[in-house]
Structures are given as C-alpha cells and as structure tokens.
Amino acid sequence: MKNNRTDIKQKITRGETSLGLEFGSTRIKAVLIDKDFKTIATGSYAWENRLENGIWTYNLVDVITGLQTAYSEMKQEVERLYGITIRNIGSIGISAMMHGYMAFDNTGELLVPFRTWRNGTTSVAANELTNEFQFNIPERWSIAHLYQAILDEEKHLPRVDYITTLAGFIHWLLTGKKVIGIGDASGMFPIDELTQDYNASMVKQFDELIASKGYSWKLEDILPKVYLSGEEAGELTDMGAKFLDRSENLQPGIPFCPPEGDAGTGMVATNSVKKRTGNISVGTSVFAMIVLEKELSKVYPEIDLVTTPNGSPVAMVHANNCSSDINAWMGLFHEFYEAMGQKVETDELFTVMFNLALEADPDGGGLLSYGYFSGENITGLEEGRPLFVRSPESNFNLPNFMRTHLFTAFGALKIGMDSLIKEENATIDSILGHGGLFKTPIVGQKMVAAAMNTPISVMDTAGEGGAWGIAILASYMMNKEKDESLEDFLDKRVFSGIEVQEIHPDRSDVEGFGKFIERYKEGLVIERTAVDNLVENWRG
What we know:
39% of the residues lie in helices and 18% in strands. It is α/β, with parallel strands linked by helices. It has 2 domains: 256 residues, Nucleotidyltransferase, domain 5; 220 residues, Nucleotidyltransferase, domain 5, CATH 3.30.420.40. Belongs to the FGGY kinase family.
C-alpha cells in the first residue's frame, strides 16, 4: 500500500528518511527511503571507467560531479513531487565498488590516479602475499595494489599517509572520518573474525616484509578504522553539507553509517546476510557471495574470503567481466535499427533480444564467446580481448548468439563456484539475483539457474541495488531496537512482505550449459592467443 503524499512530506520534513549514495561501475545513484524502506526519490549520474596508461581508472572530477549530480537530481525530484526542499535527512550511507587503491598524502592529495578493481596488474604481489599469509589475496585487493607499488618502487610511496577505497574516500570527504565498514575493509586486507578487525598477525607480517624499504609509515597507520553495521561512523560536516548539496540547503550534523562495498550492500539488498544464504550480483563484473557455516579447508585462488557488513565470513567468487560485451553488442544492434530508419527504446531492445535466448539450442548451438574487456584472474588472464568464435558447423542464428553471450557472462564465475560447491561441499539454501540482467523477467534467472544448477530467486527489490542496500544500512543504524541483529532487522522489518519469484534449473538448460562450459574451458587458449598477439593499439 503506497504512502500518501502528505505522509511522505511529513517524513521528509521531520528527517525520518535515510539516503543511500552508491558509486557503481556505470552509474552513481542516490536513493532516499522512508522509515518503511520505501523509495521516495532517486537521482543518478552515468559514468564509465577509462583505460589510461594501462590502468583502469575513474577521473576524480567525475567522482565529485557524479556525487553532486545524483544528489541534486534526487533533491529536485522531491521538490517536484512533494513541493518541499530537503534540509535534513535522518541518516546517510556511502557504498561503492570494492577493492582498488586510493592513496593520499598528509595534505589529502591523491598521489596516483584511482586504481579500480578491474586492474589485473598486481598478479606478482597477489601471489607473493598469498604465499606469505597462506590466505588468498586477490589481485583486486587494496593490499595487493600497495605491495605491487612497493615491488615496482613507485615514487609516491614515501608520501603515503592514508589508503582507502572509493566508498571510504567519499565518506572521508563528507564527514572528515577515516573509517570503513567491515565488509569493505575485508576487500582491503584480511579480517580476523574473532577481533572483527584487520588480522593483526598478518599486519605484522606485512610490516616485516617491507621493513627494508625504510618507509616512515606502518600498515596499521595508513588503513581506515574498521566499523560494524549499526555503529555510527561520523556526521556530515559543514563543509561536507556544502559539498554534497550545491544549493546549500542541507544542514550538517546528519549521522553516517559505516561506508560499505557493493558486495555488502548487495547482500543487504537481497536479504543474504544469514549463513547458508547467497546472492549473485550482475553488472560490469559478476560475483557470488555465499555466507559460510565453516572455514574453507584450503586456500583457493578463485575464492575470496570477505565478510558481511556485520562481520560474518563470506566466500566471494568474483569475475571481472560480465555485461560489458553484451552491452556493446546491444549498442551495435541499436545502430542497426537506426540505420534502417527505426527507433527503439533501449529497454525494449534488451527485452526482445534476451527473450530470444529462450528459443535457442540448449548449449548455444556450438557458438563461443569471451566478453573479456579486462583480465580475468579466475582463468589466469592478465588482460582481456572480447571474442566471438564459431565453427562452420555451428548453428549460427540470433537465439543461439544471445544464449551464448548470456552463458559466457557466467563462465568464469561457474569455474570458481565449482571449487566451493564440489570441493568444499558448501551448503546453500538460497541464492538471490540482483542487477540489471534480472530486469528482463525469467531470462536472466533461467540462465543463472542453468549455470549454477541451483534455484535462483529474484525479489521485487532486485532492481533497487546497492544504493537501496546502503540506505537500509543507514536506516538500521538509526532505527534498530537495542541488540537487534542485522539479520533480524532485515528478516522481520525490511523483507517481511517482499514477494520472491523462484526459478528452478531446467534439466535441458543445465545439460546445455555443461556442454558450453567445457567448450569455454577448451577455448581459453584462443583468448590467451588473442591477449598475447593483439596488443591494445593493434588498430594502428
């Protein structure tokens, strides 16, 4: 039942709201919710990462412009719909892509361009640290970026005063606090489940490892302080308020929850923080998060060990590439429409093309593609070359073309998940999907169910994403009962009336994906050859 306009106006006026600000891989989004977790207004800003000097990055100007634009659009929507200006908000939270490397000196100057999770340039550092700690350190993690910079003797290192993630940076900008949520922290450096902080023995190992370099800093001094969900992690400063709201209507003093990574906010947005639950987030990258009942028996290079926003251990299988190649092909088909003098809405195009995949041969007709825009650590490739391959005998038609591209979006993820399910016998009661691919009903669920061979559910809130998830965490901080756990808050208050649509794997689809994934594994030598022989400026 929808809240009426007067009730919403009163909630906004009284500050009975929570704001989530999320920096996703293709969009910065602002979502304002009420105390019943319903969305009041949204704003957004489209952006793209850039490959500059061999590094995937986002321009800092775009970070700031996107933050202000997304907030401004949300504010204007409130003014248009409800006729009032936002001056106060009950609580705010920041979410962003996990991992990566942002290093600052003691004046707050960014020392090198922001290095995102997408970079596969830290393999030497990641391997050395994994061996040193006997704990998997993925290439994306902040500590891998820092150690690779040390191995490469980068000139900025003596000036380092603080390193953080994108979410930690925005939080610092608005509150002045150098803090981070435990889920985001677990993508910077290993977390000790007992202390709910960085693993102290590994911190000591790292400092000993680099002692001969003679840096004035110790690792603990330059990392953000770790906070758990539900804890207050700072307030909007006067400068932060002016920075966020260029019209200067927003008042300072608004409390902030700990900044979190997109993995953690995805878990919240799908009610997947309990043990034996999981979720799959689909976007530029794709990752599955499974909340563990017990520790893994050994180190797996394809499985990250991170945490939920309340500190429970999570197995994370992360593939760097997912939707970028599909989006590129959709752009080509859109151009074809226009060349024929036709007009088509992007959403309609995706719906029509995705539904064709349901008419395809179960295995995609013998076609093969790799949507590797960047490197893929699960399959051992430091760079990517998008490829489409077929044999003369392949059944080359549009349905098979679409199914192949949807299947390949989950190819690397499938390889990583097999280690968790087949070798560790991890028990998963439910997996929920979220992200743009699930906006087309049925299709995305059927493809993922075939790949994972497990039921896949989508909630009514699946399209809300991480901005809504971090808004929920901000609301939890302000509105939880004493000693109310995050699991109970989500179960009993946020998701109690949410509808869930579950699709079970179809046997034919599962068998078809099985044939496809064998073709995918065998064809990796083609991708390797392309990486080795097609240099990035090969056009010229």
